[in-house]
Input
Amino acid sequence: MLEVLILDFDGVIVESNDVKTEAFRELFSRFPEHSQSMMAYHHTHISVTRFAKFDHLLTLVGRPGDPKLRSELADRFSELVFERMLSVPLVPGADSFLRKMTTKVPVYLASVTPAEELEKILCHRELDHWFRGVYGCPPWTKPKAIVDVLARERVTPEKALLIGDSGGDQRAALETGIRFLARDSGLSFDDPTPRSFPDMNRLGDHLAGCLP
Output
């Protein structure tokens, strides 16, 4: 029986993966000699934070640890993303999924989006009321967020479920011992490939028998 549900944001609640990829493309174009390799790095490290990608870029341009450039990149990326995130469509079925699930179990959100930015987006889109708690990175990593949710709800890992859309989400579930289901947003997963669903309607139907 499922007692707590943790959701990723991009690709699970909103169809925002392409928004962030295009923002990275625009940002990295400032460094044309490295833009191609940085986009390749982004695609092969899709689940790591934007700050890890900026740190990789700083190393490539010979300015490792440069706080001023790192801050400029972070601020510009947030500007590029924020307005677009206000109008990007929800994943099909996400609204009805949240409406149903929040009457059955506590629902939490865990994302690699920085906490302050994530909360602003949720507030502007009037999605914040669905979640008992919201975890962004920084300050939280996804595994630490999961551990905190388990402690808050006083549940064992086998009674919790993470829904994500990437191998990074899959690894976070494996590291913390909770169950994992995937929404197929087009990103890749590790082997063995998890059970995946094209939209949140079908995922919700699959969970119907596991709810209180």
Summary: The domain at 4-15+89-210 is CATH 3.40.50.1000 (Rossmann fold). The chain has a mean pLDDT of 96. DSSP finds nine helices and six strands in the chain. The longest helix spans residues 67-85.
